[in-house]
C-alpha cells in the first residue's frame, strides 16, 4: 500500500472497529459471530501493511506529519488485533468505542446498542371485507379495456347482478373476438392468394430467363459463324483477285476478236 496515507488508515481502522462492534453484538445476542471474521482479518492485514509502508516511507524521506501519526496507528492496530482474538461480549478498550472520524459517531452508537432493530414490515391484509371501507374498489371495478367507457353504478348491485353484468361483458368480448377472428381469416386468405400470385410470377420469370439464355446461345453461335466466314474471306482474298483478273482478261480477248 505505497499510496496509503494516515487519513486512509484511520478510516480503515474505523471500519474495523465497526465490524468488531457488530461481532461483539452478535455474540451478546447468541448469534454466529464468524460471518465477518475473514473480512476483519483481511482488513487488519491491510492496516498492518499500510503502517509498514508509512514506516518505510518515513525512513526514506522523513515527514513529521506522518511520523506524528504512526504511534497512534500502531496503538490502534495492537488494540484491534487483541480485541479480534478475544471473544468478550463488551469492548475492552475505549479506542474501540470511539471513532477517529466524528461523522461515524452515530454508526458506532448503533453498533454498540444491544436492542434489536425494529421491524419495518407491516401486514396489509384485513378481516373487514366491506366494500364501503375500500376506497380503491370503485376505481378498480369493473375492469375494462377501454378507459373511455364509463363504469356503471354498482353501489346497489347484488352478487347475482354483478355476475350477470360480467357475463354480458364476457359475451361482448367473445363477439368482438369472433369478428377479429373472421378478419384475421380474411387476411390469411388474402395472404395465400398473394403468395400464389407470387409463385406464378416466379414461374414466368423462370421461363423468360430460359428464353433469354436460349437466344443468347443462338446469338453466340451466329457470331461464331460470321467470325469464321470473315477469317476465311481474308485468307482467300488474293485467290479471289487472281480469278477476277483472269475473267476480265478472257472478256477482253473475246471482245477484241
UniProtKB/TrEMBL annotation:
Keywords: Coiled coil, Membrane, Protein transport, Transmembrane, Transmembrane helix, Transport. Residues 119-128 have a biased composition (Polar residues). The keyword rRNA processing does not apply. Residues 81-105 have a biased composition (Low complexity). The chain crosses the membrane at residues 237-255. Residues 143-156 have a biased composition (Basic and acidic residues). Residues 81-156 are annotated as: Disordered. It comes from the Eukaryota. It is found in: Endomembrane system; Membrane. The keyword Transport applies. It is a single-pass membrane protein. Residues 167-229 form the T-SNARE coiled-coil homology domain. PANTHER family: GOLGI SNARE BET1-RELATED. This is t-SNARE coiled-coil homology domain-containing protein. It comes from Aaosphaeria arxii CBS 175.79.
Amino acid at each position: 500500500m505505497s499510496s496509503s496515507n494516515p487519513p486512509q488508515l484511520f478510516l480503515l481502522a474505523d471500519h474495523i472497529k465497526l465490524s468488531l462492534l457488530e461481532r461483539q453484538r452478535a455474540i451478546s445476542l447468541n448469534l454466529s459471530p464468524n460471518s465477518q471474521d475473514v473480512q476483519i482479518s483481511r482488513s487488519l492485514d491491510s492496516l498492518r501493511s499500510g503502517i509498514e509502508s508509512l514506516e518505510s516511507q518515513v525512513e526514506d524521506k522523513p515527514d513529521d506529519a506522518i511520523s506524528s501519526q504512526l504511534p497512534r496507528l500502531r496503538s490502534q492496530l495492537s488494540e484491534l488485533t487483541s480485541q479480534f482474538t478475544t471473544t468478550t461480549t463488551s469492548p475492552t478498550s475505549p479506542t474501540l468505542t470511539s471513532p477517529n472520524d466524528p461523522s461515524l459517531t452515530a454508526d458506532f452508537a448503533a453498533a454498540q446498542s444491544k436492542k434489536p432493530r425494529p421491524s419495518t414490515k407491516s401486514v396489509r391484509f384485513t378481516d373487514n371485507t366491506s366494500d364501503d371501507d375500500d376506497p380503491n374498489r370503485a376505481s378498480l371495478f369493473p375492469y375494462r379495456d377501454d378507459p373511455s367507457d364509463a363504469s356503471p353504478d354498482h353501489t346497489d348491485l347484488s352478487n347475482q347482478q354483478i355476475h350477470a353484468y360480467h357475463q354480458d361483458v364476457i359475451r361482448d368480448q367473445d363477439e368482438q373476438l369472433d369478428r377479429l377472428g373472421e378478419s384475421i381469416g380474411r387476411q390469411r386468405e388474402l395472404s395465400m392468394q398473394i403468395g400464389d400470385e407470387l409463385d406464378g410470377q416466379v414461374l414466368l420469370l423462370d421461363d423468360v430467363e430460359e428464353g433469354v439464355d436460349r437466344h443468347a446461345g443462338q446469338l453466340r453461335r451466329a457470331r461464331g459463324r460470321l467470325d469464321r466466314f470473315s477469317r476465311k474471306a481474308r485468307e482467300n482474298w488474293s485467290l479471289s483477285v487472281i480469278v477476277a483478273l483472269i475473267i476480265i482478261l478472257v472478256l477482253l480477248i473475246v471482245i477484241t476478236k
